[in-house]
Amino acid sequence: MPKYPDYLSTMTCPCCASTDIYFWSEDRRRAYYACHQCAVVFVPTHYHLSPAEEKAEYDLHENDVQDAGYRRFLSRLLTPLLQRVPAAAQGLDYGCGPGPALALMLEEAGHHCAKYDLFYFPDQCVLDQRYDFITATEVVEHLGQPLEALDRLWKQLKAGGVLAIMTKRVIDQAAFKNWHYKNDPTHIVFFADRTFKWLSKRWQAKLDFIDKDVVFLTKQAPD
């Protein structure tokens, strides 16, 4: 039996809007629910931080754009992406944070990369442009309305364009209980392999699981 039936009666999945939700897990901080349709695991809204609290958490991050270790981390997405985009491509680093290292690395590789971040680079104009690629590294797990945000990004991609996402993926309930990734209070939605398969079907996209936390979705050219 679900542990919190009152919540379940009003809850919808933030990724696919299904009402087929069930209790997944809990810890001393909050409870987690999952969606039967798309397999997303999420935190109910009453546990979400306020915008001010959320930004305070991000301000604690120290992602130095010249840090060699951080660059190696980002290269697990960057290297395969560079093999898939045309020369001098136009891209967007979505949710780049205060230190947009990936955007810098893409520009060093000869590409143009616009930057957007709700708190640090909030220029909405870049969300009205079209791009050859869009990156979202360690971003989607922070989104209160992931489908709305991702659908918008998908519309911004040109035919043949790549949406490159880095986020750690849910494996199962046993692993989730001891998963450090869920302990960040700004992490409120967790994607599984099946979530990305659901998105690829929705968008009729080519899906590639690049690494354990890197996924590419490629927009197919029209027939």
Structural class: alpha/beta
How many structural domains does the protein architecture include? 1
CATH class: Alpha Beta
Number of helices: 7
Q: What is the H-and-E element order?
A: HEEEHHEHEEHEHEHEE
Helix content: 25-40%
- Unreliable stretches covering 5 or more consecutive residues: none
Distance between termini?
A: 48 Å
Radius of gyration: 17 Å
Model description:
The protein is built from seven helices and ten strands. By secondary structure, the protein is an alpha/beta fold. The chain has one domain: Vaccinia Virus protein VP39 (Rossmann fold, 3-Layer(aba) Sandwich), CATH 3.40.50.150.
Secondary structure layout:
Blueprint: H1 5-8, E1 21-26, E2 31-35, E3 41-42, H2 51-59, H3 68-82, E4 90-94, H4 101-108, E5 112-116, E6 131-137, H5 146-156, E7 157-166, H6 173-177, E8 189-190, H7 193-203, E9 206-211, E10 214-218
Parallel strand pairs: 4-5, 4-6, 6-7
Antiparallel strand pairs: 1-2, 2-3, 3-8, 7-10, 9-10
Concise summary:
The chain has 223 residues and is of the alpha/beta class.
Provide key terms for this protein.
28% helix, 7 helices, 6-stranded mixed sheet, globular, alpha/beta
